[in-house]
């Protein structure tokens, strides 16, 4: 089994601007009632957990049609799930989003705007390094 690498600063910067991450932050729910409304309930779970060499396109396409995509992604980021497709994101995308998510949770949502502003002033790599260092 291969070990997942840490996301690069430019990947974290891009993930912090991803609209799916903002949606997850806005739609996160305390309970898990969102699970019964998911499109994934009518599909074989194996679709969302492909083998490492298989494409995730089918699962991501299904997630894009789902009403609870934001809550699903929020759940995956909260628990740190790095396997499969959750909320329309692959494990690699979520690893980068997780850095911004944890900073955003700590600062009650201001990290996303702060990173965007810092990126504009000092460049995405420097801003991301500062955000990662504070996480």
UniProtKB/TrEMBL annotation:
Its cofactor is [4Fe-4S] cluster. Pfam families: Whib (PF02467). Residues 39-96 form the 4Fe-4S Wbl-type domain. PROSITE patterns: 4FE4S_WBL. The keyword Ribonucleoprotein does not apply. The Fe-S cluster can be nitrosylated by nitric oxide (NO). [4Fe-4S] cluster binds at residues 40, 63, 66, 72. Binds 1 [4Fe-4S] cluster per subunit. Following nitrosylation of the [4Fe-4S] cluster binds 1 [4Fe-8(NO)] cluster per subunit. It is found in: Cytoplasm. InterPro entries: 4FE4S_WBL, Whib. Keywords: 4Fe-4S, Cytoplasm, Disulfide bond, DNA-binding, Iron, Iron-sulfur, Metal-binding, Transcription, Transcription regulation. Acts as a transcriptional regulator. Probably redox-responsive. The apo- but not holo-form probably binds DNA. Belongs to the WhiB family. This is Transcriptional regulator WhiB.
